[in-house]
TrEMBL record:
Domain Solute-binding protein family intervals: 94-477
SUPFAM superfamilies linked: Periplasmic binding protein-like II
Xref: InterPro entries: Peptide/Ni-bd, SBP_5, SBP_5_dom
Protein name as it appears in the record: ABC transporter substrate-binding protein
Source species of the chain: Promicromonospora kroppenstedtii
Length: 570
């Protein structure tokens, strides 16, 4: 995200609210708006419209895991805990959701217990009990379905050969002594476990359901909205879930009667519609404004509708360390020296939409350490240093690599900038364009992955750098599907440091160590940090309740508070 993060990592895209995963350091990304009154309390009723280019990755939360779809999931699904709403005093906090309170942890830190609230129901009126929560969580281990957030599998103890409820059956390390109590046994102490069960793949599901592709286009709602219509690549319509009880939910305001997502629109068309603000578009929100549109937002009438959020996500290029010649650290370091980060920012729309990055952990996230291992004059790349390393590696004549990239104009502009940077040192970059809706799945499948890929990562919960380093660089968590370690780095020293820091109970001290490990990892150059993306939005004039969420929306607008000023308008 949060990637997906590829996250978590998720990069700023012009089609959804993903900044591509989920800023940080306990602070809410700063917000600025004109006189639009976007933080006013919404009225009851009406339909919020969302305009976007690409479809969501999956409706099944065990599969999907990026900033755009995670935000959508918040409307229809609930978990034991969740991120506080964007309007909260601390929007980065993890708060109870289906559970009465945050978890009760044992003295040894290995057991966490939660008690469910009364009155919880699925959309069909069936009760949500501890058994359904356990079943939903256990789906994360299915090798075909469980390709989303990795934290459940990484933290909760499970038999080594466990492959989820459909293939293996019961997961004995999660106990349900009664209908309202659920007990988790961990592999080792993890003081941030409340955040783990806030992940979207901890969504409850009716026992026995959801096998195969059942939920790719379907939803079993536990949140305030249910699926009324889904035409893949075209339309998603949500209506009220009458079985949802607002008295059990302190997070979701659910003021609109419904939501309508229009998919498959050209990004330039989206901008034109938002600028014109006609008909139902006064009730519309969309993703990041296209770079070419930015100069047009300077008029007073549009300026009062502009929303800006600071960036919390790192855009980077992963280098596949298992493929020659990228298995040579000198070659990866040469690429790190050669990249012109300022050109990347310019290709992405300029300084209004991003800032160059030289670290994995962005400045807004706890644990950030300021350093630059591959410096150059004005950040334009050190060609001589890069060529020297290629000479040492026996590659003076250069080589050809294939770069995976999403088939979007802004993403292709970034890739073309990489082409131009590396051409200066004799490396020919061939682009492999992948549809946005399947991009994360494709690059997260090592058998389909090429030499490099541009993606991004956002913190899955903002108070800790633990959601940046381990998902991207722990060599013991390289999966056949749903792999976030795009570099496929498996370094003993890095793995050992991840274990040492992960065992620390002082989160502030751990964050400092994560910053040091950031530097240690970049000495190996498994990725090239490119930029930290910023968010510029142009909501419709009748939309309100617009607050940023680092955890739930990758720094974009948190859907749970959104509504309309006048439900009859549009």
């Amino acid at each position: 995200m949060k990637h997906h993060r590829i996250t978590t990592a998720v990069i700023a895209v012009a089609t959804t609210f993903a900044l591509a995963a989920c800023g940080g350091g306990g602070q809410n990304p700063s917000t600025s708006s004109g006189a639009g009154g976007f933080d006013a309390e919404p009225a009851e009723g009406g339909t919020v419209h969302v305009l976007q280019n690409a479809d969501f990755s999956y409706l099944d939360p065990a599969r999907g895991w990026d900033g755009g779809v995670n935000n959508f999931y918040r409307l229809v699904y609930r978990q034991l805990t969740t991120s506080a709403p964007g309007s909260a005093d601390d929007p980065t906090a993890i708060v109870p959701d289906l559970a009465e309170s945050l978890g009760e942890v044992s003295d040894d830190g290995l057991t966490w217990t939660y008690t469910l609230k009364d009155g919880l129901k699925f959309e069909n009126g069936d009760p949500i009990t501890s058994a359904e929560v356990k079943f939903g969580v256990s789906r994360a281990w299915d090798p075909e379905i469980g390709i989303g957030s990795p934290y459940l599998k990484q933290v909760i103890d499970a038999p080594e050969d466990y492959e989820g409820p459909y293939k293996t059956g019961d997961l004995p390390t999660i106990e349900t002594p009664d209908e309202q109590t659920i007990v988790f046994h961990l592999k080792k102490p993890f003081p941030e476990f409340d955040a783990v069960v806030s992940q979207v793949n901890a969504t409850p599901f009716p026992e026995g359901s959801g096998a195969g592709d059942e939920f790719i286009h379907e939803i079993v709602a536990s949140g305030p909205y249910k699926l009324a219509e889904y035409v893949p690549g075209s339309t998603i319509k949500l209506t009220r879930n009458e079985s949802w009880d607002a008295a059990t939910d302190d997070v979701r305001a659910a003021k609109p009667d419904g939501w309508e997502f229009t998919i498959g629109l050209d990004p330039a068309t989206i901008d034109e519609r938002l600028i014109a603000g006609q008909g139902t578009d006064v009730n519309a929100i969309a993703g990041i404004i296209q770079p070419a549109t930015l100069p047009r937002l300077q008029t007073p009438q549009l300026q009062e509708r502009v929303l800006q959020f600071d960036g919390i996500c790192t855009t980077y290029m992963g280098l596949n360390t298992t493929k020659a010649p990228l298995d040579d650290v000198r070659v990866r370091q040469a690429i790190s020296y050669a990249v012109d980060r300022n050109a990347i920012v310019n290709a992405s729309g300029g300084t209004q939409l991003g800032a160059p990055s030289t670290t994995i952990i962005p400045p807004a996230v706890a644990g950030h350490k300021d350093f630059d291992l591959y410096p150059s004059a004005d950040g334009t790349g050190d060609v001589e240093a890069a060529k020297k390393l290629l000479d040492e590696a026996g590659l003076s004549d250069g080589f050809t690599l294939t770069l995976d990239i999403r088939s979007q104009e802004s993403m292709q502009a970034q890739a073309e900038s990489i082409q131009q940077s590396l051409e200066r040192i004799g490396i020919t970059v061939e682009l492999n364009l992948i549809d946005t809706s399947t991009y994360y799945e494709t690059i997260g499948t090592p058998s389909q992955q090429h030499d490099a890929a541009i993606t991004g990562w956002c913190p899955d919960w903002a108070s800790s750098a633990a959601t940046f380093i381990p998902p991207l660089f722990d060599g013991r968590n390289i999966y056949e599907k749903g792999n976030n370690n795009l570099a496929q780095l498996d370094d003993e020293d890095v793995n050992a440091r991840i274990d040492e820091i992960g065992a620390m109970t002082d989160i502030a001290a751990a964050n400092e160590q994560w910053g040091d490990l950031d530097e240690q990892i970049l000495e190996l150059a498994p990725i090239v940090p490119l930029m930290v993306a910023k968010t510029v939005l142009l909501p419709g004039e009748n939309v309100t309740g617009l607050h940023s969420s680092a955890n739930a929306a990758s720094g974009g607008i948190d859907f749970v508070g959104v509504g309309l000023k006048d439900p009859e308008k549009g």
